[in-house]
Structure formats: C-alpha cells, structure tokens
C-alpha cells in the first residue's frame, strides 16, 4: 500500500534548515568560487598573457589596465595573478591544516570523553593549557627553529616546499583545540546513551565502541568545529606569513603579499587592500558556514554557540 | 575560596615551570648557538679558544643539566645579557613590559566596555534587526586579519587624513605633551580593541540568552520587575560566570594580538621585543620575554579565577573539579 505521507529523511531536513540560513549558503558559494578562481590561476595567467613570476621594473605600480586588471606590484608583476596563486597556497594550507587539526582534535576529544576520569582530566587540562598560552610568540619560535637540529633528513630540508610543510605543522599544533573540546563534550553524552551501553554489554572492546558506535555520531560536531577552525587556521597562516615566518617569497600567499605592502604603504596603499580583503572574506565565510552548519546539524544547540 | 585559588596558583606555577623548560629547549634548537655567534664576532678566535668557550658556557652538556644551571642562576636573579642591546635582559624587558601592560590594559577595558553592553542588548532582543546587526559586526570583528586592520587604520588615519602617527612611540615629557604621547597609542589600542570585541560580544550574548531562559528569571518578571531590572539585578551576575571564563582563556589570544599590533605599529612592547629577539638570535632576551609573556597570561587567568569565585559563591563550598 502506498500512502501519501511525505516523509523527509534527516538529511533532507538538515539541508532545508541549512538553506534557510542565507548567509551560510552565500558563504559556501563564495568559498567555492574563491577555490575555483584559485585553481584556475594558470588559465587566467594564460588568458591575460602575463607571467606571474616575470619581473618588469619598468612597469612597477602600473594602474589597472586590460592586461593587468588590478595593476602591478612593486616588481611589475601582475597583481591579480599573484593574488590567485596566493589563494591557492593559502587555501591549500588552511584546508590541509584544518583536516589534520581535526584529526588530532577528534582523537584527543574522543579518548577524553569516552574514558573520562583521570585521562579526561589530564587531556583537558592540557588542552586548556594550550588555549591559555600566548600561542603566537611560541609559534614564532617554532617557525624560526633550525630544523637540521632536530634530525630531519636532508631530503626534507632541501625540499622547495619546506616552508609549506612547516607552516602546516605549526598551525596544526595550534588549531586542534576547538575540535578537541567540542568532540569531548559530545562524546561525554554519547557514552551514556543506550546503544553504547548495549554494545558494551555485548562485550565490544573499547576501541570498537569508539570507532563503530561513537565516532559516526560525532560527525556533526566534527564538521562544525572543523569549518569554524578552518577560518582561524587561515588567519593564523596569514599572520605568520605576514611576519615573514610562513610561506617564503617569491611563492605568494595572501599573508606574505601584505608584508611588502606595509613598507610601500605610502607609495601604493592599494597593494595592502586586495590580499587582506580576500583573507577577510574567506575567514568570515568559513565562520558563517560553520555557524549555519551548526544550526542545521544540531537544532537543539541553537544559541549555545561555541567559541569559533 | 582560598583553597580553590591556592590550587589554581600551584597549577600556574607548575605550568610556568614546564613552559620554562620547553622554551629553554626550543631556544637550543634555534639557528646558530651562542658560541658560534661569539666566534663569528671575533676574528682572532682560534678553534681552541672556541672549544674553551664551549666548555666554559657548557653548551655541549645535556639539556637537563644546562636547564638546571640556567634555572638556578635565574632564580638568583642572574638572567644574562641581551646580545642585541648589550644590557642585562631585565633592564631591556621592564620598559617593554610596562608599555605592553598599558596597551593591553587600555584595549581590554575598552573592549569590555563596548562588548558587554552590545552582547546584553543583542540578547534581550534575540533575532531582531539590532541583534542581527550586532552579530554581523561581531563576526566581522573575529574574522578580520588583525594586521590588515592595523594597515587599514594606518592608511586611513596616517596616509589619507594625516591626523595620527603611523607608528612609533611618544617620548615627549612635560605636562602639556601628554596628548602628543597619547596620539601614538590611539591606533594600536583601536586595532587591538576591535580585534577582541567580536568574540566578547558573542560570548556575552550567548550566555545572557541562556540565563534569560531560567525559571528564576520568569519568576522575577512575574513578580512585576521590569525587563531591565531583571537583566541587571538577576541575570547579569549569573551570565557573567561563563563569560569571565572564556575571556580569561582569551588572555593568551590578546597577547598574541598585542604582538601583531606592536610589530605593525613599531610600538616598543613585549610582543615586538619577543619578535625582534627571536629574529636577532638574542636567546637570553627571547627566553626571558617569552617567560614573562607566559606569566602575564597566567596572571590574567588567575585574576579571572578570582573573579569567578567572587561571582559564583557556590565555588567556595564545593570541591572544584572543572
């Protein structure tokens, strides 16, 4: 018998709630467009007939023209193409680091929330400790370390992507805390649920309970926390690169494009505008998206917004 | 109450001890070592002389031994000399510490003065246009790159309008020139304040909304108190409890913000000192300044714990396990 009950799956309901959050939808679209633009940087380069690495000392600080839609920088390089390549680096670092940070945070939060007791107390004190520290100065120390002294192989040290790997590791070290705390508090409540008790009563090992029964139910908090920390991580990467400790020029990133801009602030204030506005748009979009996802995935937690 | 604070104090000292070891260890991994720097500074140095220096400073000893030596000397007040400033590190650091305390204190107070009322107002009219606007601004505040905000302020107020200095620090003395000195503080304080308002506003709003749902609030309204009376007399104190905790945890974040602000504005505070010391291989100075930055944050956290006890007397009676 086929009745006309128009049931909706939980996924459809979530999607409906998310669509109502107009800012979050717009943010998702903007992020996709930014990513698309960054990926297509070489195409734009070809289309414009410019070379992002070509120094043209006669064409410094050129105003916007057909060839250079946003003008050129202090070395006569096309600003738009540099911004797009910078976006590739910044978005890649941000997303990679956010995913690794989410992995570490999930592991710590899961262990803490499931086992509870002393392990929980220890791990959470540690997490609180990391949050409370003046992180940026410590990260600057990490960024300035001589890596050959900690016994890394020459192969890694000679790699041209060294500054990329290094910055990812550094921001991961700072970025896992949000995920850890959110996952822990969700795991704490899940632990008491009947289906978990049932699995335990059937003799499932702690590992199995965590991986099969608890982890899948943590998907929502993990997605939300990862989205929210992605913004922070991109912000952190830009700060370190701005200070000259992250991505090293001539590889552009949104952060290091602003380093020179500060010195040139009297001659060419417009150079300081574009990279910053792109970071700002990206970070705020991630924050709105995280906020919208939180409302959509966990309607009960409305208003109980966590630190982003 | 005293017991809770005492245990917190002991915890802070432990954290500080651990951090001093970690930071000391990290300093050893910086490029170059102190003896190399001395060797390169002295053209007459022989390999034997360098070996002697290595022995004298004990740079080849195990890290634990070196750390204990350093900590022993440090506890007796011998913190070494700064390589960049050729002065005892304490003499270099204290003025910077003072400048940073001024910068942080002003920004912190200003941020609270703006953020707490904004959060409360948004919470009393949830999902109104006003709430929506405040929320939007708060999101903008937490998402704006702090160094870019500083650059924008410089562009607008120093480059375009030319009314405020782009950076530096006022060194005028004399009563009439206080304003001259203050002018240098305006942009750094503004940029640091804006960077922390957003977060505080959101915490305050969330905590207040949660508190206003409680039964005793409904009771207070039912007995005829006005909305504002209820908010101020009944809800505020309870709503402040979680807010104080989060704001306390944000102290480290605030210090990180100070580092960015000071570096962009060339403001001679702790953040810039640390940055310059690390970049200039000034190990003694970097070590001490990092430790003091940690002390400053831990002290901020401790003050927040004290405020927490004062706001929530229940804590005095029960064993605290947070």
Write the layout of secondary structure elements.
The complex is a heterodimer of chains A (308) and B (322).
Chain A: H1 10-20, H2 22-39, H3 41-48, H4 79-115, H5 117-132, H6 135-144, H7 154-158, H8 162-175, H9 177-191, H10 194-201, H11 206-214, H12 219-242, H13 254-263, H14 273-297
Chain B: H1 2-28, H2 34-41, H3 47-57, H4 63-75, H5 89-124, H6 129-143, H7 146-160, H8 178-212, H9 215-222, H10 227-249, H11 251-265, H12 270-279, H13 283-311, H14 314-317
How many angstroms separate the termini of chain A? 49 Å
Rounded mean pLDDT score of chain B: 84
Provide the structure class of chain B: mainly alpha
The largest pleated sheet of chain A is described as: none
Terminus-to-terminus distance of chain B? 15 Å
Number of helices of chain A: 14
Short synopsis of the structure:
In chain A, 68% of the residues lie in helices and 0% in strands. Chain A is built from 14 helices and no strands.
Report on this structure.
The complex is a heterodimer of chains A (308) and B (322). In chain A, 43% of the residues are buried. Chain A contains 14 helices and no strands. Helix content of chain A is 68%, strand content 0%. Chain A has helices at residues 10-20, 22-39, 41-48, 79-115, 117-132, 135-144, 154-158, 162-175, 177-191, 194-201, 206-214, 219-242, 254-263, 273-297. The longest helix of chain A has 37 residues, at 79-115. In chain A, helix 10 (194-201) runs antiparallel to helix 11. Mean pLDDT of chain A is 83; it is low at 301-308. Chain A is an all-alpha fold. Chain B has 322 residues and is an all-alpha fold. Chain B has helices spanning 2-28, 34-41, 47-57, 63-75, 89-124, 129-143, 146-160, 178-212, 215-222, 227-249, 251-265, 270-279, 283-311, 314-317. In chain B, helix 8 crosses helix 10 (227-249), helix 8 runs antiparallel to helix 11 and helix 9 packs antiparallel against helix 10. Chain B is globular. The model of chain B has no long low-confidence stretch (mean pLDDT 84). Chains A and B meet through helix 5, helix 6, helix 12, helix 13 and helix 14 of A and helix 1, helix 6, helix 7, helix 8 and helix 10 of B.
